[in-house]
Amino acid sequence: MSNVIKLRKGLDINLKGKAEKKLVPVKSDGLFALLPDAFVGMTPKVVVKEGDKVLAGDPLFVDKKFPEVKFASPVSGTVSAVVRGDRRKLLSVSVQADVTTQWKDFGKKDVDKLTGEEVCAHLLEAGLFGYINQLPYAVSANPVAAPKAIFVSGLRDMPLAADFEFELEGNEDAFQAGLTALSKIEKTYLGIGAKQTANALTQAKNVEVTVFDGPCPTGNVGVQVNHLDPVNKGETVWTVDPSAVIFFGRLFLTGHVDLRKKVAVAGSCVKEPAYVEVCVGQPLKPILENQLSVTEHVRIIDGNPLTGSPVALDGFVGGHTSEITVIPEGDDKDEFIGWIMPRFKDFSANRSYFSWLFGKKKEYALDARVKGGERHMIMSGEYDRVFPMDIYPEYLIKAIIAGDIDKMEQLGVYEVAPEDFAVAEFVDSSKLELQRIVREGLNMLRKENA
After folding, report:
1. What are the tens digits of pLDDT across the range 57-90?
2. CA-to-CA distance for 95 and 146, rounded, in angstroms?
């Protein structure tokens, strides 16, 4: 029987526009792009040039610091553009796809007979190792630093997040093969939700399955690490998105790099929220152009509304994208007498609005406004009420702002990722950009310890 960990701190935000569990067809114009920014902490070095022919699985760029970490092309075709921004920062490598995908053959492998070193070597060769992240610093994993454990969270509980159980349908064998491969490297933990019933999750082999019961952000892998095997200074754990586990499994079962996945298209500005099967690097425009109920004053987000990043309609599906959400921007609103209105349609975490009378099942069509400017930080304990980790979040944020590295380390900075503060940022009456502050603190610490 699986271990059960019950958490009570957190906050579930019920937003309108959750994706229905059905697949809708989507066409592609054949242009794909791999985005380096999807792999945090990695400095890309391009290894192709415009006009080169590539197979699905051939590297498009590598990590400059660790050249053995390659990033594979999701399709076969011709490299059409290497796009750079300010100071020649690499923004994307585009590939005009062939009509029929041609795969680079890495050979089928029996994961039961492989060693951990062979698993890592195979992932590195195929350009998939970069999909593994690590704590501390919440960046792409360092292939040199051996982890003390590996964590996979099969629970996505952020607002409008994709349901991994639906994505898992038809991919059960690949998911299990991926878990087995990871277990060869080091002890692997799989965290699932109390309401998840898929056998591929509850009966997963070669891993330690733990059930997490609680509100958002219980599904965050960082929260699960904190309760199962916390990270201390000098230690490293790897965290792997469940979609990437499927990518790994397909590699071992088929010998091919197959980066197809089901992505939720959700949000109150989407006509029919549902799922689409896409490939990493696929353009967003064909996915969204006939799905938007309004085309102006909307925010398109790569990810969920709390942790995702704003993107343009001409963007592409990122390496770790599990949902694409579209919500109102809110910049065209002009509310009569502002905050004094009873606000029956707005969500409040502390019953400031009368909407709490409708109960927890009411769905809200929230916009992207912050509704207030940044102000002094008040030690009110409001972060702690929604932060289910054995850490003092307010004191940690203050230490990061002050740049006090010793205090940051004492307060558990090595255990956190920016997404762990997403709900705290949502309820923050000081309107601080907590996720940005945490990311800057982690980058500073990483540079200091380099």
Report:
1. 999 999 999 999 999 999 999 999 999 999 999 9
2. 34
Can you give the pTM of this predicted structure? 0.95
User: HSE (CB half, 13 Å, CA atoms) of 299?
Assistant: 20
272/287 Cα distance (integer angstroms): 12
**Interval 16-60: pLDDT, tens:** 999 999 999 998 889 999 999 999 999 999 999 999 999 999 999
Per the structure block, which two tokens stand in for 353? 């609005």
CA–CA separation, 400 vs 42, rounded Å? 22
Q: Which amino acid is at 228?
A: L
Structure tokens at 120: 């890592």
Checking DSSP bridges between strand 53-54 and strand 77-84, what pairing results, if any? antiparallel
Residues 6+ apart with CB under 8 A from 337: none
In sequence order, which residues have a C-beta less than 8 Å from that of residue 133 and are 6 or more positions away?
40, 139, 140, 141, 238, 239, 240, 241
411 and 371 in contact (C-beta within 8 Å)?
Answer: no
Cα distance between residue 295 and residue 187, in whole Å: 48
